[in-house]
Design brief:
With 85 residues, the protein is mainly alpha-helical. It has helices spanning 7-24, 33-39, 45-62, 67-70. Helices cover 55% and strands 0% of the residues. α1 packs across α2.
Length: 85
Amino acid sequence: MYHYLNKSQLNRLQHIQKAQARTVVAALKSFNADHILRSLHWLKVQERIEYKVISTTHKLIQSSSPAYLCQLTTVQPSRSTRYLH
């Protein structure tokens, strides 16, 4: 659902996440929110979206998922850039 958000919407969500992180640690607005996110081990909004897409796709491929979900995906063979000798 969040994968196709435009940049302004992602920035808005990121701003909200930073405000939440400051609230969790009771930090002032002047504190660098990126450091707070890292200390809480929180991914930024875009990173979280990418993680969820990759994680969900992996689970879908590796498990016995419902047929309607499997029909929505195709598995591409990996393309190695290295030559094996």
